[in-house]
Amino acid sequence: REGPFPLILLPQFGGYWIEGTNHQLSGAPESPPTPAPSTRARLEGNHTAKIYRKHFLGKEHFNYYSLDPALGHLVFSLKYDEQEHLHLLLRTRARTLHDVVPISCLAEFPNVVQMAKLVCEDVNVDRFYPVLYPKVN
Length: 137
Hints:
One of its GO terms (molecular function) is GTPase activator activity. This is Rap1 GTPase-activating protein 1. One of its GO terms (cellular component) is membrane. It comes from Nipponia nippon. By secondary structure, the chain is an alpha+beta fold. It has a domain at 61-130: Arylsulfatase, C-terminal domain (2-Layer Sandwich), CATH 3.30.1120. It contains two helices and five strands. The chain has a five-stranded antiparallel sheet with strand order 4-3-2-1-5, sandwiched between helices. The protein is globular and about 50 Å long. The model has no long low-confidence stretch (mean pLDDT 77).
């Protein structure tokens, strides 16, 4: 197909990928793992995915992205909850930072860059750009 090409490639048969889940490619041979009798299965090991599922997935929230000269690509998610708190999740290549900030502690409502700096003071960008894809999680 000729350009312009989309910035987001969607799965061939629709749907979306959720970070921290086990995805199987169709047609790939699948062999079930055989745990040793003395080991217990660990169902959830990705702390970031657990935070995202608990506070953001399936709930109204906003996603933003930016490029920091030192930190690299940034993805920032924020959600306002009924208890007057902001849930902030900042993802970089190296780490993920999460914070909950009561709105009553803020003198004025911050912009997106200021909210990202509440989570990580090392953020050095002029602005974040909204993710404008209606089916993104």
